Amino acid sequence: MPRIALLCSEPLRSRMAGIGIRYLEMARRLPTAGLEVVLVTAGEREAVPELPAGVEVRVFERGRLAELLDDCDACVAQGQLANDVALERPSLPLVIDLYDPWLIENLHYSASLGLDPYRNDHATWVLQMARGDFFLCSSEEQRQYYLGFLTALGRVNPPRLERDPDLQGLITVAPFGLPERLPEHRPLLPGRTPETSRRLLFGGLYDWYDPQTLLDALSLLAAGGRRDWQLLLIRNPNPDSTPQRLFSEVEAWCRRRSWWGERVVVLDWVPAERRYDLLRDVDLLVAPHRPSLETRLSLRTRFLDALAAGCPVITSEGGTMGRLLVEHDAGWVVPPGDPAALAVAIEEVLDRPDRVAARRANAAPLLAAFTWERALEGLVAFCRDPRKDPTRDDFAFRPATVSPPDSWTFRLRRRIARLLGTRS
Fold it and tell me: CA–CA distance from 91 to each of 72, 75, 94, 386 (Å)?
């Protein structure tokens, strides 16, 4: 029976984001496919949520990875820690999980963090895509994008294509999954008031989202006399490592209108096991985004969770989720940057239960395609027969990452921030 190591860059604990949830669910699901699982966490062993009997938990220690993986037949790794596997255990079949396109996400923070993250992320992707044996992504949009990157590094080559014309043995779609059955609903939010009887959830704020269009849409509703709503945001649990520019702008805008703390409320990050309770406690998930490369490549797992919980969703056009919602008529998709259209969609969700019920029914076949069993089919097939890519060493190469130095204005701003003891 193959023994598979799962190595996640995010510590596994009760409060974690989509990547942590993904690896926890892999550890729970792969044993049912006849695989032994070793879960390597970057956090504390005691913090790891409940796992099936037989799943071994090991704690990552830099410099000891070869020892930790010595008895494993393959490793599935994500994020920067995949570099350690590629460099310390080059003979171990390596699955690189590209579900989260973090290089593209981090480009949005260049104004705050400078070019160092880009240099590091680009060099990391070059290393991982040159050295990995099998790759996971979240959607067909992502797969086409990564195939271009892999082709540029020599991974799509004549013998590879001859034995694997569609390259499913090189990179496969393995999206975020959904449970076959949701846990019983345990209300998470306090009782409603007449002034805030309708709850709208945005979730976490990241720089590729567009909360301003939503705030403008809510202003239109308020100007028209509709004031029975409350908008819920989720506070980032890692503010020191994730720039908070957008959150600060939203807070300032709302405070000027006396919305902050009443109309617009911030919640702490909820435990992963309670995320469906939150989605059942609200009337709508609405998270518009700006047109961008990140939008085209992101799956938007918060929308999948919402659909599974029966929560209506509104998003902007563009990206995988927008496409799926339109194809299945399972939610509301509005033009980006159009507060009037967004206001109309919000009112339809809040006032037309018949249309909400119809789209909820339409979501059923979409959700059926995202069970964890189906999401992990390609990974399970590889793990049952883990292997090195025989064409890799003959064709793969690693070009150098090149970028100019940071601008003098950025360097000056960063030096002043350091002198003042603040973040740039």
Answer: 11, 11, 9, 12
Burial of 325 (0-12, 13-18, 19+ CB in 10 A): buried
Query: What is the helix, strand, coil percentage profile of the chain, to 5?
Result: 45, 15, 40
Tell me the angle at which helices 81-88 and 116-131 cross, rounded to the nearest 10 degrees.
40
User: How far is it, in rounded angstroms, from Cα 27 to Cα 16?
Assistant: 15
Query: Tens digit of pLDDT for each residue in 47-76?
Result: 888 899 999 999 999 889 999 999 999 999
Residue whose structure tokens are 């680009």: 122
pLDDT of 30 above 70: yes
pLDDT range class, residue 99, cuts 50, 70, 90: very high
Phi, psi of 57 (to 5 degrees): -105, 130
* CATH hierarchy code of domain 194-370: 3.40.50.2000
Instruction: Round to whole Å and give the CA distance between 159 and 10.
Output: 36
3-class DSSP assignment, residue 284: strand
Beta strand 74-78 pairing with 171-173: unpaired
Average pLDDT over residues 2-18: 91
pLDDT for 244: 77
Whose CA is closest to 12, among 58, 64, 65, 63?
Answer: 58
Q: Which of 9, 374, 29 is nearest to 173 (CA)?
A: 374
Q: What percent of the chain has pLDDT over 70?
A: 97
Say whether pTM exceeds 0.85: yes
| Residue with the two structure tokens 């996640």 | 8
Nearest C-alpha neighbor of 2 from the set 333, 314, 385: 385
The mean pLDDT value for 191-216 works out to 90
Query: Distance (Å, rounded) from C-alpha 362 to C-alpha 292?
Result: 28
Q: Are 31 and 64 in contact (CB under 8 A)?
A: no
Strands 171-173, 264-267: parallel, antiparallel or unpaired by DSSP? unpaired
Residues 177-187, mean pLDDT to the nearest whole number: 93
For 144, the token pair is 């086409």
Topology classification of domain 3-177+374-414: Rossmann fold (3.40.50)
Domain boundaries, the chain: 3-177+374-414, 194-370
Please check the confidence at residue 232 and state whether its pLDDT lies above 60: yes
Mean pLDDT on 143-171:
97
